[in-house]
Amino acid sequence: MNEVVSILSMAEESHDTKTFEFQWEEKAKPGQFVMIWVPGMNEVPMSLSKVSRVKGITVKCIGEDTAKIHALGVGSKVHVRGPFGRGFDLNVSQRALIVGGGVGMAAMLPVIKETGADVIVAARSASEIILDDAASKYSENVWIATDDGSRGFHGNAVQLMKQRMSEKDYDMVMACGPEVMLHYVYQHCCEAGIDCQLSLERYMKCGAGVCGSCAIDGQRVCKDGPVFTKEEIASLSDFGLIKRDSCGCKVNMR
Asked: What CATH code is carried by the domain that includes residue 9?
């Protein structure tokens, strides 16, 4: 559904990331996303960081289009299309560990709210950690990891994940973040014999599975994902290695 909504509130999560909330009656599930557009920018996909009647998007300013969103204020009008994609299955786990890397935490916040599961929030440095306070409202255990050690665990998300998994019995990892991070999350889950659901991010133009710009090994991330199961990830040979640019050409990720 395509609808024009008004921004109800705006909150700064970090020096380059803001959360915008708006009332939208469409039902959405944790892990789904929407396409956002305002005049003067290209339509862009955004994970929903809130999926109740009042919904939210958490936006990192990384270019001209996201800068346009960051310039919005309370009362600004935004075109919202969706929701799209397949979200997380929250009925398959009793003891989940949630991992959010960078702005990937946005997609995980609704999962944390519904499950109350343990959480790892990771980023390169303390200044890039987001939504940890919000996560702490729903989870008793929220652990921070920074690559440079400026806050919490000195190391990356996967290193802290391995430590926590050695200390506590989990049956599922649910994660969203940079694909390289997800690649190593998946590898360790395979080694440990633990199930996982991973939310992938690819270049998306339509959001409805028509244009094929987000294709990975025959799967359309916007339609068949963005959340994929461990078994589905196993069949994706490009996962963690190759992505597509805005023209659809394959680009090495490493």
From this structure: 2.40.30.10
